[in-house]
Structure formats: C-alpha cells, structure tokens
Amino acid sequence: MGTELNKRLFLLNGLFILGVVLNHAAGWGTVAMFCWAHRFLPAGMAASSQVGSLAYYILIIVRQITALSVAGFLFTAGCFLVYAGRGSQQTLSWKFIRTRILNLLIPYFIWSVIIFVQIYITEGVTHTPLEYLGLFLSTGADGPYYFVPLMCYLYLLAPFLMRLAKERPVILLMLAGLLQVGTSLFRYAYLAFGSTPAIDFLLKISPDWSVPRWILFFSAGLVVGTHLETFKAWLKRAKPWLGWAVLVAGLAAMVEPELVYRLGGLEWRSVPFPLTHQVYSLLAVFLLMTWEVEKTWLFKPLYYLGSRSYGIYLTHHKVMEIIGRVIYHLAPGFLAYQVPLSLIFLGGGLGLSLGLMKVVIMTPLRRYYRYLFG
Question: What pTM, to 2 d.p., does this model score?
C-alpha cells in the first residue's frame, strides 16, 4: 500500500461528495416538480402531468447516475481503512476503530441537535428521548444522515471483516453479496406479491439504512485494499470491457426503477437502489479506480472537496432546504423551471456549506472546526 492509493481515494471522495450534492440538488428539483406543483401549475392541473417532460427525464437521469456516490464512499472507506489501519496487521485495533467512530459521531451529534432544535422551532415537532435515540442510531435527523450510523456499524464490524478479507476474500464477498442481494429480493417480493405478514416482517428487519443493504460495497473496499496488486492486475485486464459494462448497467439502472414506478407506483428512483443499480454502482466505482485523475485539471478542485467532504455531507442538505423554503415563499413561479432550480440548489448547497466552513476557519471558532466538520 502506498500514498498513491491514499491520494486516489481522497480524490474519489471529492468526486463522490460532488455526486451526493448533485443528486440531492436534482432531488429538490423533483420535490419542486411534484410536491410544490400547486405553487406554479394552473388550478386543476395535476402534478403528475409533468411526468415524461424533458425536465423530468433530466432530473431522473442525474439522480440515477449520481446515486453511486454513497456506494463509492463505502468502497473508499473500506480501502482507506486498510491503509490507515496499516494493512500488514492481522486485525484492526479497537482503539483505532474507536477513534474513527468518534470522529464521525461528534460532528454528527452536534448537527443532529441543531437540526432537531430547528425542527422544533419551525414545525413544532418533538419526540420522546427514546425516539430521539432511535433516530440518532438509525435514519438520523436529516435526509442523508443515515450514512453516519451505517458507517459506524460497519466500522464496528471491520476487524472481523478485515480478517476475512485477508484470509478468505472470496467467502467475504459471497457472504456480503448474499446479504445485500437477499435484502433487495425482499423488495422484489413486495413488488410481486404485495403486503403479506412474512414480507412485511422481512422488510422491517432490513430497513434501507441497515448494514445488510450496503455491506457489499464496504467489503469490496476491504478486499481491494488488502489485495491491491491482484485487483490492479484484474483491473488492467478488465479495463477494455469495463466501460461498456458500466454503460449497459447504467442504462438498465435508469430503466428499471422508472418501470417499477410507472407500472406499480413504487418509488425505486432513489437510494438504496434496485439490483441493476447495485451492479452499475460497483462497476462504475471499479472504472473510476482506473481514472488517472491526478493528471486532469480536476485534481485541485476534487482535492479541495475531498478534504471537506464530511462537512459538506452534514450541512448541504439543510442548506438546500432553506433555499427551497425561500424560493417557495418568495419566488414560487421559479419552481416551474426545475433544471435551473436544481443548479441553484447545487451552487447554494455546495457554496454555502464551503462558505460556512471557511468562516469557521477564519474566526476564533476554528478551534472547534474538527468538532463541527470532522
């Protein structure tokens, strides 16, 4: 292992956080298109009339392409864990794992409290202490926050998964694949048979934020990190056909959730995604591992974003919500232009989050920067 891999993972994280922000910007554009349609559509016209419009397809395509970002984060986290934990060891130390988890949890806790207080002030919503604890340990206080508890649970499993990655990598990938595919099949069973006691129970024990829904991506990162030379040799052989495979899988990943929505009315157009999108995400991450990003003009921007990715992740979605509320009340006519609107969400979500971090760095608050943004 060396600094070359570490640098590549860092740059990919910059790309993935850009993908997350772009995905959520398109998501808010979709919210404007359907949930806020009454603010700009003529009276009596249904929001569903916008399905099939050019803006609709642009937003759906952007969301599906960029939905690989969370899978990418999990993959790079697995790879980086091998590097940062000194991959020559047989196991990761619990002290190291504890440090990694605390680095995630402290900013997560602070921003969760801020968001819960904001929701209480603006919406009057409160929960019992047990309900707050349940949210904190599962879906979080805001849309993308489920990623933090998920990552912590994976870190707790990492010493055991690392041993398998070193000694039985094929078995680890098979077990992780069975878990992830199996929990996905529960969703297909619901699609085929509807609600039954058995299916409802299976869905309840495998919620979308849970480890089995995502474990393959993290495990793949651990395996690649511990068997890097073998992976690089495979990647060299696979590169000629990998791009075509990503293209085919990407097209399938766009078509399948749209068909499910059109035929059954189920919302499969966002993460966690159907099987076609899982295949696309894994192949796309492998393809990105071949990209010599260091030689492109994107090196500095992605490095900058990569170094601030966690802070952006924690703040951008709430910033976008504020932007949406302002436009909803002050300029509702602009909600009809969802693609330009999404660009505003993208620029505002990214720019204001980075600006907030810059303000903290340039003021006496900089001593608290790592507690706020990791």
Answer: 0.93
CA distances from 54 to 51, 60, 189, 328, 345 (A): 9, 10, 32, 22, 19
- b (16+ CB within 10 A) / e for 63-78: bbbbbbbbbbbbbbbb
Is residue 283 within 8 Å of residue 260, measured between CB atoms?
no
The DSSP line for 179-247 is HHHHHHHHHHHHHHH---HHHHHHHHTS-TTSGGGTHHHHHHHHHHHHTHHHHHHHHHHHHHHHHHHHH
Question: How many Cα atoms sit within 13 Å of 371 on the Cβ side?
Answer: 5
Q: Which amino acid is at 169?
A: P
Residues of the chain with pLDDT under 50: 1, 87-88
Nearest Cα to Cα of residue 356 among 341, 344, 368: 368
DSSP notation for 114-143: HHHHHHHHHH-----HHHHHHHHTTT-SSG
- CA-based nearest residue to 161, from 100, 215, 230: 215
The pLDDT of residue 115 is: 96
DSSP state for residue 92 in the 8-state scheme: -
Cβ–Cβ contacts within 10 Å for residue 104, how many? 18
Radius of gyration of the chain (CA): 21
Nearest residue to 11 (alpha-carbon basis) of 295, 287, 302: 302
Handedness of CA 349, 355, 358, 360 (dihedral sign): negative
What does DSSP assign to residue 296? S
Is residue 133 within 8 Å of residue 126, measured between CB atoms?
no
Asked whether the beta carbons of 306 and 10 are under 8 A apart, the reply is: yes
Q: Which SS3 state, helix, strand or coil, does residue 209 take?
A: coil
pLDDT, tens only, 23-50: 999 999 999 999 999 999 988 788 888 8
Q: What is the pLDDT of residue 1?
A: 43
**CA dihedral for 115, 118, 123, 127, sign (positive or negative):** positive
